[in-house]
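My hope is that you will study the protein record below before we discuss the fold together.
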Amino acid sequence: LTGSEAIKLAACIHQLYVEGSVSLKSGFPWYKPYVDYCKENGIIAEDKNYPLDRPITRGDFVVIFANALPEEAYTQINDIEYGEIPDAEEGREYYEPAYKLYRAGILTGSGEAHKLFPDNPIVRAEVAAIVTRMVDESRRVKFTFEKKEDEAPKEDNAENNDAKEEEKVTEEDKTTQENVYVNVTITPDDSENIQGNMNITD
């Protein structure tokens, strides 16, 4: 998923929530109306430049989608303390937005440790799960972080461990998709179809 595709999706979700329908159309370049809409509605900062033609990271995606709905739409259902997301670095732009989405049950992270993997590109299976939970509150997930008092120390080959964790993410995403009824397809020619609660076409 590229930055421009993520911004378009956020703009459509916001307009649907606020106005009840989507009237946004593509322009030149195709993503400009969506970028303008997101800036006008505080979804992305005026001075923020996302990589529009390159894959967007999970961290950047979280920042955008933590603002894609009004505040009242992010009701907290999980008690998650700061510092519990193991790979969320305090001071980074995604830090507060990540906790906001975790606490709302929109984001659950990857694997048993609920890692964020903020610098990894976000995949469409993950996007589908997040969009589902954003538009349908009944799909949001209640969970807690397990407290492990005698956790074994991490092995030296941390890179290999992370690779295994990412494999787990892929398998979990396949399982998640079985329960996701919001189908997201976004292509550079601006075709998009979101099924379920949303049906957006240009």
Observations:
- The first helix runs from residue 3 to 19.
- Confidence is low (pLDDT under 50) at residues 149-202.
- Strands lie at 184-186, 192-194.
